[in-house]
Amino acid sequence: MACGPDGTYVIEFDQFLKQFGTLTRGEFLEAHKVPQLLVGEFQIEETTFQTTRLTRDRLWSRDQPAQRFFVVPLAKRQGSNAFASMVTFGRAGNNDLVFEHDRVSKFHGYFREVDGAWFVCDATSQNGTTVNEVEVVKGDKQGAPLESGTRLCLGEHVDLVFYSPEGLHAHCQTLSWAGPSSRGLESMMHKVPRAEPPSRARGQPA
Predict the structure, then answer these.
(1) DSSP state at residue 86
(2) pLDDT tens, residue by residue, 115-141
(3) Residue 138 carries which DSSP code?
(4) Above 90 in pLDDT, residue 150?
(5) In this structure, what DSSP letter does residue 181 have?
(6) Best exposed site among 10, 32, 68, 185 by fewest CB in 10 Å?
């Protein structure tokens, strides 16, 4: 578990399920006040800047489901950057969420909250962002709305799922104690269909 300066953490989903899966709804929501991202099969590295850094030499194969998952709080990192109203993500170390993959731009995009609703915006990234396989308009400051269980893909390779605290609690209740790894990524993503992988030759790092 990697702890941030504001008490947030990154935890493998199997461990998360064992620790929080039996909590009542009230107890769960008290423990998790911000949305969470489910990230498929990344290696977590702690840094001196307390960045949530998610890396892997080769992302999970699209022919085989990911076997490890991590729960990542969607929260602002203290001192990360000047964008107080954004939870930024990208390849550069000054983002709130850092994804070290060459298909992810240095400043790829950001999440923002408006009156309790969450949106994802693409900051004119090189290789784009999709929400449920629909491309997010680059540079659109309004962004694409997110609902619990929404699937995102960064740069055609980095796959995430957005969960509200309530949605994650409900989803945890549907999973057996055998753990989600044996169920595969599709069950964790509410069985959103996965598109055929695009050519890896397209696009370059920003």
Answers:
(1) -
(2) 999 999 999 999 999 999 999 999 999
(3) B
(4) yes
(5) G
(6) 68
